[in-house]
Design brief:
The protein is of the alpha+beta class. It is 65% helix and 7% strand. Strands 6, 7, 8, 9 and 10 form a five-stranded antiparallel beta sheet that branches. Strands 2-3-1-4 form a four-stranded antiparallel beta sheet, with helices on both faces. The longest helix is centred in the C-terminal third of the chain and has 35 residues.
Length: 738
């Protein structure tokens, strides 16, 4: 592989006009496709195989026209102090608001609180439910404006009015955080390279790769039913790996220049050596993202595949466009150890004999490997302890900041009716096979009324054919609580007895039940996902490092860093430690997607650092250095670059902590702390300590396996053979002249 990539790098350097034109053309084509594509609506959300999804599908078929997946809004009214909602003026205001809301073109129904009896016992709070034909992400701006306008008119009449539900759900905006991340990345790259030109290359290629990937996703969004979160994830991961991959190749190019090689030769060697690591690092990220398909949730599968495509583009750009741009840059990209005139006058940055920080740190670890290993493992183990009390769930309006109308509506409903009104359960009774459907509906209602934790049960509402009915159940606990989850399981537990007696099937659905099933499905899929991703990457790393123990150490180190990061997330977002510092207003269950999302994203980035750092050690060892000296050599060449890449990633992810959206805040914090643990504790401390303790055994591989594995030549042995052929050719020509 090294020889092929070496030739590819030299070709791109020589034919830079063609390569640059090709990528610009692809970017233009993707941009035109995105601009001309129809606007995509919200991605359809389904959880195949779950009871909540079966009930939802049954509602769609048995209650045609009810728009089961349509948006809902809960407009909550509170009377002034000392007044009741039934007072003449207050009642007139509510009725006027209901009438105005019912005129919307996308509205299917509006409930009158005084008809449906949705007025609190003390008479101070009432609410109306507004149902729409389309989902919250697909609602026209005019419908949202009409909803807000009607609420404001009621406020002007003297009532306190807040709006909950998903009708006011906004499309995620992710512009400022990327800008902050790119700005910090630029500063780190300038410090790392000491050159504005060298620092600009990774940024430019990463932006081009992300531009192609996100534009392609946008162009295909409508046809493939891709939601806005798909492009957000692709942008985040694409930007991360795009900068990383280009950073490693430019860094290796400067190191080759420092050894006295010509620029075209240096570009070829940089792609042949660092490029090999890029290919395999990219493969680990692709495996982790495509592996999300094992969860069997279409939305996650699409997100993973789209992000994996963006990573593949980042790899191809790093292998081809970086050497092409290096050809354009010419002598403005200085050899390693030198700075540009603007930042250092072209002088040497350090004396050659003086060891850099990476060399000094690696030498210390090699001298004290056991102490460093124990300190690192104990530290990460302590950080992981909170993860033992991990509770999973999905955020609702109760986790929103108190400044939002959704949160204030949530609190008003909780105060007026109880917390369960914010997450009612919908029971679907399928009595098509029953001889007495009405009796079945009555039995289900009576059984549920006798369960612990139930506040109210509505009368059954049958469909036109009378074979299916809906029953609304209000719990006495909030939607995200463990008590509500227990109630859902208890209702489902009565289904077997009811079916035996009446031949009717009882199914529980609604947003609360959907969230519970979603969390359970993700939880069940975590171990198979880990086994698949870590297993495939383990096999891949065996091929790369030609070792059993090095890939095993890489996988165990990753698990340590992810568990420690999950522990930190639980401590902050579930226990409330440092919550005020992080701007967390409401603690609660950890978002269900968090563990599997962190495993996928962090695994890919962690293996990036592992491959780039350890391939340098492997290269030095294969070329004759002792194991301990190979560790120091790997750090001398790779520690600075890996540190820069990790700092960039931490800065990018930390930018999301400032978001007012609790889910985004949690993802930003979780990924930032995970990269910190993995890069600076696992890769920089535990990895060299373990390798120092193992010595030559770290690179052991059974002979039969060594013969069976393909030789991918990541360490560049083929390039050394190429050098020897050239030298022999030069000697033969010299002898011929004599």
């Amino acid at each position: 592989m090294a020889t092929f990539l070496y030739k590819l790098g030299r070709f791109a350097f020589r034919r830079r006009h063609f390569v640059a034109l090709m990528w610009v053309a692809l970017l233009t084509l993707a941009g035109v496709g995105a601009a001309s594509a129809p606007v995509a609506g919200a991605s359809s959300f389904s959880i195949p195989g779950t009871e909540a999804q079966k009930a939802f599908d049954l509602l769609e078929s048995r209650f045609p026209g009810m728009s089961a997946d349509g948006a809902t809004a809960r407009v909550v009214f509170k009377a002034p102090e000392g007044e009741k909602m039934a007072d003449k003026d207050n009642k007139a205001t509510v009725e006027k608001t209901v009438k105005v809301l019912g005129t919307g073109s996308e509205v299917t129904s509006v409930d009158d609180p005084f008809t449906t009896h949705t007025v609190s016992k003390d008479g101070s709070v009432a609410y109306t439910s507004v149902k729409y034909k389309v989902s919250g992400m697909e609602l026209e701006d005019s419908s949202k404006d009409a909803l807000e306008s009607a609420a404001q008119d009621a406020r002007d009449a003297g009532l306190t009015v807040e709006v909950g539900g998903d009708a006011l759900q906004a499309t995620p905006e992710t512009g400022s955080t990327e800008v902050i991340g790119i700005a910090i990345a630029a500063v780190v790259l300038v410090i790392t390279f000491g050159s504005l030109i060298a620092a600009g290359l990774p940024l430019l290629t990463a932006l081009i790769g992300v531009g192609i990937g996100v534009s392609t996703i946008t162009a295909l969004a409508s046809a493939l039913d891709l939601g806005s979160t798909t492009s957000t994830l692709a942008m985040m991961i694409g930007l991360a790996v795009g900068i990383d991959y280009a950073l490693f190749i430019v860094s290796r190019y400067r190191a080759e220049l420092a050894e006295g090689r010509e620029r075209e030769e240096a570009a070829g060697r940089a792609v042949g050596t660092a490029g090999s690591a890029v290919v395999f690092a990219g493969l680990t990220v692709v495996i982790a993202l495509v592996g999300l398909s094992v969860v069997n949730i279409p939305m996650l599968t699409k997100m993973g595949v789209a992000a994996a495509g963006t990573v593949a583009i980042a790899v191809l750009i790093a292998l081809t466009m970086i050497p092409a741009l290096l050809g354009y840059a010419g002598r403005r990209v200085q050899p390693a150890g030198k700075k540009s005139r603007l930042l250092g006058g072209g002088r040497a940055a350090k004396k050659e004999g003086k060891p850099n920080m990476g060399t000094r740190w690696a030498s210390f670890v090699v001298r004290r490997p056991l102490a460093v290993l124990l300190l690192g493992v104990i530290g990460l183990g302590a950080a992981a302890l909170p993860a033992t009390s991990l509770e999973l769930g999905l955020p609702d309006d109760g986790s929103q900041p108190t400044s939002t109308t959704q949160r204030r509506a949530y609190d008003l409903l909780s105060d007026g009716f109880g917390p369960g009104f914010n997450g009612p359960l919908m029971i679907v009774v399928d009595a098509k096979a029953s001889d007495a459907p009405k009796a079945a509906f009555t039995k289900v209602t009576d059984e549920i009324k006798g369960l612990k934790g139930v506040v109210s049960v509505s009368p059954a509402k049958p469909n036109k054919s009378g074979d299916t009915a809906m029953i609304t159940v209000v719990p006495d606990s909030k939607p995200s609580s463990v008590k509500t989850e227990d109630l859902v399981h208890a209702i489902r537990g009565t289904g077997g007895e009811i079916k035996a007696d009446t031949d009717a099937t009882v199914l529980v659905t609604g947003s609360t039940a959907m969230n519970i099933d979603f969390s359970q499905k993700l939880n069940d899929a975590l171990i198979p996902y880990l086994a698949l991703v870590v297993g495939l990457a383990f096999l891949l790393l065996i091929v790369v490092f030609r070792s059993i123990l090095v890939p095993l150490k890489a996988a165990l180190g990753f698990l340590l860093s992810v568990m420690a990061a999950l522990g930190a997330v639980v401590a902050v977002f579930q226990w409330g430690w440092l919550a005020s510092l992080m701007g967390v207003e409401e603690t609660g269950p950890i978002m269900s997607m968090m563990p599997i999302f962190m495993v996928g994203v962090v695994f890919g980035l962690a293996m990036d650092y592992e491959v780039f750092l350890v391939t340098r050690m492997r290269e030095a060892y294969v070329h004759g250095e002792k194991p301990s000296q190979a560790i120091v050599t790997g750090f001398r060449h790779g520690a600075r670059v890996v540190t820069a890449a990790a700092v960039i990633m931490i800065a990018v992810f930390s930018g999301f902590i400032g978001s007012s959206e609790s889910m985004i805040k949690m993802i930003g914090f979780g990924l930032a702390i995970a990269v910190f643990f993995d890069a600076f504790v696992v890769r920089m401390a535990i990895v060299p300590a373990v390798l120092a303790l193992l010595g030559k055994r770290a690179w052991w591989l059974p002979k039969w396996l060594d013969r069976a594995l393909p030789n991918v030549d990541v360490e560049g042995e083929g390039l050394r053979a190429l050098d020897e052929k050239r030298r022999d050719g030069d000697e033969d020509r010299e002898l011929a002249r004599v």
